[in-house]
């Protein structure tokens, strides 16, 4: 009898406790979103717009590359829930970590500044607020991040040469050009999911927006850049081949020449 | 009348007929030599040949003894003079026209290009063979007492040869000449470093003075070209003719070529063509020579082993002719395939990078990069002085005429060579990898670097090593040997190092092919 | 034994000497050009129309010829191989004895002009390699000009007006392109132009060693350098900040024009330059020559990856609305220190006051008629500490916390002399309030920012305080 009583108490207390935690969590979430909105309005709204539709007061940003191409940089429209810089499979939502990473590092060459000095909780708050712009975060199931293990031969000469063949076979040059200058034959015909013309990346201009480590480049091939012309090669290329392509990309970016003596 | 006419005419006809013979007979006072007497008079009655002895010791004819090096050097000089006169006809020593006149020699003058090549390569060949000759003389001990002064004369010839080559290098007035001129002017100005660091420049600016003496100003101009040309075609050649004459004369007066005391090869073993016959010889046994009694002291020695001498005519003359022809052939073939360099017209605004002195001064330029004074004045001066003093400091008379003196000599030479190669390469590697005092202590006074740099340390090491050798072996000859070997090795290595491994900005590269393109 | 040794050395060396003397003599008697002269004579004999012509052709002397141009101190020996340049019979033959194309030689006879005066190369040389001056080992700074650039030589004696009409169109087009593309915005020519790039005087005749040839594909020549540098400046000089946007074939035209810029002057008797009125430079052409390379049409601001800063929209109506002519004139004359903007006054980049005035007038043509609503800044007292709060919240993200703008920043520098000294604070306040249309600068006075007038006054006070050392 006594045993039963204990059990009931235990069950009830566990239930009560969990309910309490749950509500507390929700409250915290709500509070976070409010805090996130506040930060968003001071720091992000000028470009991404009050409604998160990418049409902030600053408008479209223009940038002239060294080669003379003029890029039109449109701040991300959060309402569609389409994100380029993910560690999940194509079509998936980004993980929370993907979003905070972008907020933390910024995006090179696009005026999205790194917010390294910002408190971690604030970033999480902004991230939570940004997620409220799209219903996908409520409706779609979350995806698991793709695991990466970099082989140690990446960047070797043999790998670069294999990558060069794949670059040719997979017609990367149609957009990115034979020497990776982003001047391929189809480079002027690409439009993003919003219907604006976009230009393929010129490997010689600088850092990749996603980051230029071999892992980042590999992830670009694997996850694709959703919303742009860059597809995912997770199904069409073997893992090793994608790494070979990483080697060749590094070569085109000039990251493999560093060791040589430059006068 | 008629008869006399006829005799007159026939006399005349006879004279015409015999013209060739009488003419030759008037030139060569002897007929074709048939006996040793006439062979002897063929030599001493001829202006050009009488510099040689009537008889020659068979050791002199041994190719492995002299290697013909001195003679090759002399014949190269003859070739240089001949081709030089030819070039002088077309060359125009003015800043405006010098370059184009050299181009014209290359482009339109008949055989001009080959002549210029011959002049250039024979001139530089003189340096190479002069060093080889010097080494031969040194290693066979031929500078020893009795011949000391001729060794000094040889050193003077070395300096003159350098000067002649250098002054010729500057005449085409192309980029190569111009910037070599600048470098050489820096070498000439090098005493300035010492006076600067001693604070004496204000009172006694000897560096600027020597530099100006050479350039006729502070930068290369038409003045520089004028005086360099004057030196190249007049002053230096005249001096070198006299000094060469002196050198040859002293060979005779100092007793001819050296030979080993224990020379026991017989002429017959050596296949010498004409054997001196006792009966018809010039030293008949039944005669004495009163003249010899008049002479005292260091007279030309009539050698003890007279039986080992042969007539110079034709033995020596054939050998000399062969060497002449060999030299000529070598020069001509080399010049036929290798063109003397000629770069762009001199442009004071565009320095050659690296600006290099002619190759024979590159060793100095390497030392110059450590310290201007030491590389330009101190060490070369010391080296020349040291070379000149060798015969006065080493007066041992053992085994003169034997290559490397003795077994120990061979060992010492080899030892010194190995040691010097190791030490000098280690020194260069150290300087290239770690820099020198200035890199570690930027504030250090220049005077310290002037006296403590790889060049001076190397010379100090050479001297110490030589003294150690003297102490160890108890022989000054061994010490001199060690010093001389180390001098040759360092000249060779430094020259090679500075030619091939010093690229733009005097930076180190493993080879010329690695130099960055500009 | 020794005698035999010496005799054999003598014999072998003697034979070698004879052989090589023979080779040398043969080379001198039969130089390369001689064989071309033989071919030329054979061709003429074979194609002679009648016996008289045949006889004449057979009697053609084979000899060394040269054209000496005393006034230019030049010797051209090209006609030793190119024998048929003036012979109409050689119209359809092959080089080297082919007739010169076109009728250029009618007015430029070889015996008066030679060849290298137009074609470059080493006129005095007597073999193909050296005469054409190709390859590093010829050590010749002016190798033979490719036909694409050969018109550049015409400009030595002829003026652009004449060239544009008859046979020198590439030079004329190149010069027009040079003015239009705004090259002088960065490069000085005859003392006028910006100082971001190297002065271009004499550039066409600089020695090869003057150029960095490391990345040049093909032969290391000045024209190859120029062409490839126009195609992609950073491929040739990695640190170059040069901006070029050229269409098809325009690089060739500009290269041709560059090659006309040379220090030497031909003797008077050769020159046919008519000193016409210099082309009229109005505000528009001046703007193109000196401003357009960086500012384009001046309507939109743009971040420039090479300059590493935002290039402002200087002809944007909303800028002109607040900026009067005096301000513009001042900025043009003094430039913006710390940025790529050159000071254009006479003593710096070399524009006269009148020319600057022309440019200002041209720019001001875009100014809207209505004046901005006055802000009356004087009525507010700026609060520096509140100003800093507002600045950090609203401005810092684009202009940087220190106000310097610069790399990867959308905003311009607020610390420059122009903002700090030349411009009225009232203008700043109006700009903050109304923003600047067609640039990322939003209007902070309205939604969604809704800064109050006091906020704006505080921020302007804070920005103006930079010059006295504030906001570090």
Report what the structure shows.
The complex is a heterotrimer of chains A (263), B (518) and C (472). With 263 residues, chain A is mostly helical. Chain A has nine helices and two strands, in the order H-H-E-E-H-H-H-H-H-H-H. Chain A has helices at residues 2-43, 45-48, 96-105, 120-131, 136-139, 157-169, 173-176, 214-223, 239-252; strands at residues 61-64, 70-73. Chain A is globular and about 75 Å long. In chain B, helix 5 packs across helix 14. Chain C has 21 helices and four strands. In chain C, the strands form two sheets. Chain C has a two-stranded antiparallel sheet with strand order 1-2. The longest helix of chain C has 28 residues, at 2-29. At the A-C interface, helix 1, helix 2 and strand 1 of A face strand 3 and helix 18 of C. Strand 1 (61-64) of chain A pairs parallel with strand 3 of chain C, so a sheet runs across the interface.
In a few lines, what is going on in this structure?
Chain B is mainly α. Chain B has 21 helices and 2 strands.
């Amino acid at each position: 009898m006594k045993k039963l009583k204990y059990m009931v108490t235990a069950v009830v207390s566990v239930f009560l406790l969990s309910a309490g935690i749950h509500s507390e969590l929700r409250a915290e979430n709500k509070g976070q979103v409010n805090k996130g909105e506040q930060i968003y309005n001071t720091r992000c709204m000028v470009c991404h717009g009050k409604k998160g539709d990418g049409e902030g007061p600053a408008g479209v940003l223009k940038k002239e590359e060294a080669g003379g191409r003029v890029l039109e940089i449109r701040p991300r429209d959060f309402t569609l829930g389409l994100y380029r810089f993910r560690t999940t499979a194509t079509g998936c939502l980004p993980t929370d970590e993907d979003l905070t990473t972008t907020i933390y590092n910024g995006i090179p060459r696009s005026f999205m500044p790194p917010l390294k000095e910002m408190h971690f909780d604030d970033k999480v708050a902004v991230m939570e607020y940004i997620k409220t712009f799209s219903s996908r975060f409520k409706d779609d199931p979350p995806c698991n991040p793709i695991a990466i293990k970099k082989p140690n031969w990446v960047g070797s000469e043999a790998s670069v040469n294999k990558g060069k063949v794949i670059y040719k076979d997979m017609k990367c040059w149609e957009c990115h050009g034979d020497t990776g200058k982003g001047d391929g034959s189809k480079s002027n015909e690409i439009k993003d999911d919003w219907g604006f013309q976009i230009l393929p990346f010129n490997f010689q201009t600088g850092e990749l927006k996603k980051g230029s480590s071999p892992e980042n480049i590999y992830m670009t091939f694997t996850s694709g850049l959703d919303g742009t012309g860059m597809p995912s090669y997770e199904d069409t290329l073997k893992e090793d081949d994608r790494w070979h392509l990483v080697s060749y990309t590094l070569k085109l970016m000039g990251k493999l020449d560093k060791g040589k003596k430059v006068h | 009348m008629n008869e006399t006419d006829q005799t007159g005419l026939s006399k005349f006809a006879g004279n015409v007929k015999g013209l060739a013979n009488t003419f030759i007979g008037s030139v060569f006072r002897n007929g074709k030599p048939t006996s040793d007497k006439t062979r002897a008079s063929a030599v001493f009655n001829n202006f050009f040949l009488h510099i040689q002895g009537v008889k020659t010791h068979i050791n002199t004819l041994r190719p492995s003894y002299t290697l013909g090096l001195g003679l090759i050097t002399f014949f190269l000089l003859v070739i240089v003079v001949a081709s030089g006169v030819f070039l002088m006809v077309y060359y125009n020593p003015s800043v405006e026209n010098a370059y184009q006149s050299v181009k014209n020699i290359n482009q339109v003058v008949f055989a001009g290009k080959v002549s210029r090549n011959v002049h250039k390569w024979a001139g530089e060949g003189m340096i190479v063979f002069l060093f080889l000759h010097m080494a031969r003389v040194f290693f066979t001990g031929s500078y020893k007492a009795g011949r000391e002064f001729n060794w000094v004369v040889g050193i003077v010839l070395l300096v003159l040869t350098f000067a002649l080559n250098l002054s010729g290098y500057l005449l085409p007035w192309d980029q190569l000449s111009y910037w070599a001129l600048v470098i050489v002017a820096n070498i000439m100005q090098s005493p300035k470093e010492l006076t600067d660091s001693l604070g004496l420049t204000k009172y006694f600016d000897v560096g600027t003075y020597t530099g100006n003496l050479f350039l006729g100003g502070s930068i290369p101009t038409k003045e520089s070209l004028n005086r360099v040309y004057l030196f190249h075609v007049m002053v230096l050649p005249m001096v070198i003719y006299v000094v060469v004459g002196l050198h040859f004369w002293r060979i005779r007066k100092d007793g001819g070529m050296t030979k080993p005391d224990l020379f026991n090869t017989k002429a017959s073993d050596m296949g010498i063509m004409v054997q001196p016959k006792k009966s018809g010889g010039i030293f008949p046994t039944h005669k004495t020579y009163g003249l010899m009694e008049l002479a005292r002291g260091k007279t030309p020695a009539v050698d003890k082993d007279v039986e080992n001498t042969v007539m110079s005519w034709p033995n020596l003359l054939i050998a000399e002719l062969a060497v002449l022809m060999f030299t000529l052939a070598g020069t001509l073939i080399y010049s036929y395939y290798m063109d003397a360099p000629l770069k762009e017209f001199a442009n004071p605004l565009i320095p050659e990078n690296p600006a290099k002195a002619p190759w024979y001064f590159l060793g100095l330029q390497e030392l110059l990069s450590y310290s201007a004074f030491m590389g330009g004045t101190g060490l070369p001066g010391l080296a020349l002085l040291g070379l000149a003093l060798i015969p006065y400091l080493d007066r041992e008379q053992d085994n003169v005429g034997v290559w490397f003196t003795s077994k120990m000599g061979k060992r010492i030479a080899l030892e010194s060579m190995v040691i010097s190669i190791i030490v000098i390469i280690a020194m260069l590697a150290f300087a290239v990898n770690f820099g020198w005092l200035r890199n570690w202590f930027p504030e250090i006074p220049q005077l310290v670097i002037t006296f403590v740099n790889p060049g001076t340390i190397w010379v100090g090491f050479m001297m110490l090593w030589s003294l150690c050798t003297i102490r160890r072996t108890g022989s000054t000859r061994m010490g001199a040997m060690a010093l001389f070997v180390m001098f040759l090795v360092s000249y060779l290595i430094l020259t090679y190092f500075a030619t091939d491994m010093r690229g733009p900005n005097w930076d180190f590269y493993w080879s010329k092919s690695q130099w960055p393109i500009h | 034994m020794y005698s035999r040794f010496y005799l054999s050395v003598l014999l072998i060396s003697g034979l070698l000497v004879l052989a090589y003397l023979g080779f040398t003599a043969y080379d001198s008697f039969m130089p390369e050009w001689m064989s071309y002269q033989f071919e030329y004579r054979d061709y003429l004999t074979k194609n002679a129309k009648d016996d008289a012509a045949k006889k004449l052709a057979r009697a053609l002397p084979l000899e060394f010829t040269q054209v000496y141009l005393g006034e230019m101190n030049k010797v051209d020996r090209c006609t030793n191989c190119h024998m048929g340049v003036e012979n109409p019979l050689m119209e359809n033959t092959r080089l080297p004895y082919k007739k010169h194309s076109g009728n250029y030689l009618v007015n430029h006879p070889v015996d008066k002009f030679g060849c290298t005066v137009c074609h470059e190369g080493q006129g005095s040389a007597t073999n193909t390699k050296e005469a054409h001056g190709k390859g590093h080992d010829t050590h010749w700074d002016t190798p033979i000009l490719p036909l694409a650039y050969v018109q550049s030589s015409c400009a030595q004696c002829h003026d652009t007006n004449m060239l544009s009409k008859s046979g020198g169109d590439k030079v004329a087009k190149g010069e027009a392109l040079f003015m239009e593309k705004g090259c002088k915005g960065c490069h000085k020519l005859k003392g006028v132009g910006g100082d971001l790039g190297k002065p271009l005087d004499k550039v066409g005749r600089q020695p090869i060693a003057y150029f960095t040839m490391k990345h040049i594909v093909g032969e290391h020549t000045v024209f190859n350098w120029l062409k490839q540098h126009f195609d992609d400046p950073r491929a040739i000089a990695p640190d170059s900040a040069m901006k070029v946007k050229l269409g098809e074939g325009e690089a060739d035209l500009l290269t041709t024009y560059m090659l006309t810029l040379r220090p030497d002057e031909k003797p008077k008797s050769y020159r046919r330059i008519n000193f016409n009125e210099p082309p009229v430079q109005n505000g528009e052409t001046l703007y193109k020559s000196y401003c357009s390379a960086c500012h384009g049409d001046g309507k939109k601001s743009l971040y420039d990856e090479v300059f590493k800063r935002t290039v402002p929209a200087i002809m944007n109506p909303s800028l002109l609305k607040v900026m009067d002519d005096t301000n513009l004139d001042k900025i043009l004359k003094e430039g913006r220190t710390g940025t790529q903007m050159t000071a254009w006054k006479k003593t710096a980049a070399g524009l006269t006051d009148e020319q600057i005035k022309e440019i200002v007038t041209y720019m001001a043509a875009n100014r809207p008629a209505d004046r901005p609503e006055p802000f009356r800044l004087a009525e507010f007292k700026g609060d520096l500490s509140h100003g800093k709060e507002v600045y950090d919240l609203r401005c810092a993200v684009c202009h940087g916390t220190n106000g310097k703008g610069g790399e990867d920043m959308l905003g311009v520098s607020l610390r420059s002399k122009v903002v700090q000294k030349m411009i009225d604070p009232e203008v700043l306040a109006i700009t903050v309030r109304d923003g600047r249309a067609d640039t990322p600068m939003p209007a902070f006075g309205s939604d969604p920012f809704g800064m109050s007038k006091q906020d704006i006054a505080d921020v302007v006070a804070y920005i103006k305080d930079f010059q006295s050392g504030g906001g570090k």
